[in-house]
Design goal:
Shape: globular
Largest sheet: 7 strands, parallel
Distance between the termini: 44 Å
CATH architecture of the largest domain: 3-Layer(aba) Sandwich
Number of domains: 4
Helix content: 25-40%
Strand content: 25-35%
Strand order of the largest sheet: 8-7-6-9-10-11-12
CATH superfamily of the largest domain: NAD(P)-binding Rossmann-like Domain
Oligomer: single chain
Radius of gyration: 25 Å
Number of strands: 22
CATH class of the largest domain: Alpha Beta
Number of helices: 18
Length: 531
C-alpha cells in the first residue's frame, strides 16, 4: 500500500473544505492554526500539501524546510504571504482560488461606497450615544455622480455593474483593457489616471499590489483629484499613501475615505483612523459565508486532485500539461513568460493584439501552453496573482486582446526562434527570443535592434544615439551610484544613428537614477524592466 499523503492546514478553513481534502483514504489532514514561524518550520518537512489563507507567512525559510512539499493551496486570491519565487525554484506548485470572493468583495465595496456617501457608520454611532442630529450627517447622492474605477478586472467589473444600477457615470483606467471593452460596460476609458482623477466624484480601487501600484496614490495624485472626492479601497493596503490621505482629508480636499485594507494589518495609521470622515473595516471583502465556502471548496479540490495525480488546476506557477510534455517545453515557458513581461514594461497603451510566431524545431512540440505562458507574462505586471496558466487566455479574451499564433518550420538565423509582437492603442513593440544551450533564455531582438540580451533580473533598456562616449557616461553614472553592470549588449540600425543599449545590473535602480540617465547626452529614453 502506498504511503499516506499528508496535508497541513494552517489557517481557518470551512468544514466542507477540510472534508473534501479528507475524501480520499490515501490522504490524512492535520489542522493546526496560528502556528509560530519556528513551529511551522519544524513541522512542514513531514507534509506533501499545505493549505493557507492570508494568516500564514510561507517564507523562504519555511519552503527550504519543506523537503516533501509538492503543492501549496491559497484559499483566496492574494499571494502576498507566499514566497512564489522560492516555491517555484523548489518545484512546489502554488495554487489559488482567485474567483471565489469576487461578488463578496464587489458588494463590500458598494457597501463602503454607500456608507461613505450617507455617513451611515457615524450616524449609527451618534444615535446609539443618544443624539439626534440629522443635519450633521447630510450626505450626497450617487445618482449622476462620476465613479472612477482603477482596475477593471473581475471585482472592478462587478462594481461597475452595480454602480450603473444606481445611475452613476463610470470613468475607468485600466492599462490592460481595450477601450472597446470598457465602452461595452457603458464606461468612459480614461487615457491615464490624471484624466480619471479630474472627473471622478468617487474613486474605487481594484488593482493588485505590485511594484507599479505600490503608493500609486500619494500626495501628488491626491492633489490632482477633484475637490470633495471620496475614495474607497477594498483591494490591497499600500496602494494609497495613508499619511498623505490623512493630510488631504484634514485639508478638506478629500471629503472622506472608506478603507477595508491597510498597509499594515492590524492598521497603525492612527491619525487617519481617528478622522470622522473615515469609514474602516478589518479586511472583510471576502468575509461572507458564501465566499468562505467557495474559496475553501475550490482550493481543497485543486490540492486534493493534484496530490492524487488527477491534474493541476488554478496553478499560478505551473502549466496544466502532462509531465512528459512539460519536460520538453519548460525552458520555452520560462523564455516566453519573460518576453511577455518585457513587452508589458516596454509598451505604451492598452493591448489590442498579440502575435506569436514559432520558427524551427520548436514547431514539433505542443505549443498551446507556451502561448498561454506568454499571455501570463504580459498580464502579470498589471494583474499579479489574479492571472495564472489556467485563466490567462480567458482574461485576454475578456479584455478584448486578440491572440494570433503562427508557425514556420524552416529556421533562418536560429534553430528555434519565438517572435512576438504586441499592438496597443498607442503603438507596437516587437521582441524575439531564443534558447542558448537549450536552457538559457535570451532576447535577440527588440523592435528593429538585434542583440544578445540575458533575460533575467533587472534590465535597463536605453534608446540612444550611436555616438562616442555614450556608453562611458552611462557606466560612470551607474558606477557613481554603486550599481554594477553584469551584462551588456548593443544594437543599432546604422553607424551614428539610433541605437539600443541593454544592461543587466546587479543592484536596484531607483527612479532618481533613471531620471539621471535620461538626462545624459545622446540618451533618447530609458526604461527599467524586471524579469
Amino acid at each position: 500500500m502506498a504511503d499516506p499523503i499528508r496535508i497541513l492546514v494552517t489557517d481557518p478553513l470551512s468544514d466542507e473544505g477540510v472534508q473534501l481534502l479528507k475524501s480520499s483514504d490515501r490522504i490524512t489532514v492535520d489542522v493546526k492554526t496560528k502556528l509560530p514561524p519556528a513551529e511551522l518550520i519544524g513541522l512542514i518537512g513531514g507534509y506533501e500539501g499545505l493549505v493557507v489563507r492570508s494568516g500564514t507567512q510561507v517564507t523562504r525559510e519555511v519552503l527550504l524546510a519543506a523537503k516533501r512539499l509538492k503543492v501549496i493551496g491559497r484559499a483566496g486570491a492574494g499571494l502576498d504571504n507566499i514566497d512564489l519565487e522560492t516555491a517555484s525554484k523548489q518545484g512546489i506548485i502554488v495554487m489559488n482560488a482567485a474567483g471565489g470572493n469576487t461578488i463578496s468583495t464587489a458588494e463590500h465595496a458598494m457597501s463602503l461606497l454607500m456608507s461613505l456617501a450617507r455617513n451611515i457608520p457615524q450616524a449609527t454611532q451618534s444615535i446609539k450615544e443618544g443624539q439626534w442630529n440629522r443635519t450633521k450627517f447630510t450626505g450626497v447622492e450617487l445618482f449622476g455622480k462620476f465613479l472612477g474605477i482603477v482596475g477593471l478586472g473581475r471585482v472592478g467589473t462587478e462594481v461597475a455593474k452595480r454602480a450603473l444600477a444606481y445611475g452613476m457615470r463610470l470613468v475607468v483606467y485600466d492599462p490592460y483593457l481595450s477601450q472597446e471593452r470598457v465602452r461595452e460596460l457603458d464606461a468612459h476609458p480614461a487615457k491615464d489616471l490624471k484624466e480619471l482623477f479630474a472627473q471622478a466624484d468617487f474613486i474605487t480601487i481594484h488593482t493588485p499590489l505590485s511594484d507599479e501600484t505600490r503608493q500609486l496614490i500619494g500626495e501628488r495624485e491626491l492633489a490632482l483629484m477633484k475637490k470633495g472626492v471620496r475614495i474607497v479601497n477594498c483591494a490591497r493596503g499600500g496602494i494609497i499613501n495613508e499619511a498623505a490621505l490623512a493630510d488631504a482629508i484634514r485639508s478638506g480636499h478629500v471629503a472622506g475615505a472608506a478603507l477595508d485594507v491597510f498597509e499594515k494589518e492590524p492598521p497603525t495609521c492612527k491619525e487617519l483612523l481617528a478622522l470622522p470622515q473615515v469609514v474602516a473595516t478589518p479586511h472583510l471583502g471576502a468575509s461572507t459565508v458564501e465566499a468562505q465556502l467557495s474559496v475553501a471548496t475550490d482550493i481543497a479540490l485543486c490540492v486534493r486532485d493534484c496530490l492524487l495525480g488527477r491534474g493541476v488546476r488554478n496553478a499560478v506557477n505551473f502549466p496544466s500539461v502532462d509531465p512528459e510534455v512539460l519536460a520538453l517545453i519548460d525552458p520555452y515557458l520560462k523564455l516566453v513568460e519573460k518576453m511577455g513581461a518585457m513587452h508589458a514594461q516596454l509598451a505604451e497603451g492598452s493591448p489590442r493584439e498579440i502575435r506569436i510566431r514559432y520558427v524551427g524545431e520548436i514547431t514539433r512540440l505542443s505549443l498551446a501552453p507556451v502561448t498561454v505562458a506568454f499571455i501570463k507574462g504580459l498580464l502579470t505586471p498589471a494583474l499579479q496573482e489574479t492571472v495564472n496558466y489556467v485563466n490567462a487566455g480567458v482574461i485576454a479574451k475578456e479584455r478584448g486582446i486578440k491572440v494570433i499564433e503562427s508557425k514556420a518550420t524552416e529556421a533562418q538565423d536560429f534553430a528555434n526562434l519565438i517572435a512576438t509582437t504586441l499592438e496597443t492603442d498607442r503603438g507596437r513593440t516587437e521582441i524575439h527570443g531564443t534558447l542558448f544551450t537549450r536552457t538559457d533564455p535570451r532576447i535577440v531582438r527588440i523592435d528593429d535592434f538585434y542583440m544578445d540580451a540575458v533575460a533575467s533580473g533587472s534590465v535597463l533598456v536605453i534608446r540612444n544615439q550611436d555616438k562616442p562616449g555614450m556608453i562611458g557616461r552611462v557606466g560612470s553614472a551607474l558606477g557613481a551610484r554603486g550599481i554594477n553592470i553584469a551584462w551588456m549588449t548593443f544594437g543599432r540600425k546604422a553607424q551614428g544613428g539610433e541605437a539600443m543599449t541593454v544592461l543587466n545590473v546587479d543592484q536596484p535602480v531607483s527612479p532618481e537614477v533613471l531620471a539621471e540617465l535620461a538626462k545624459l547626452p545622446d540618451v533618447l529614453g530609458v526604461k527599467l524592466v524586471k524579469l
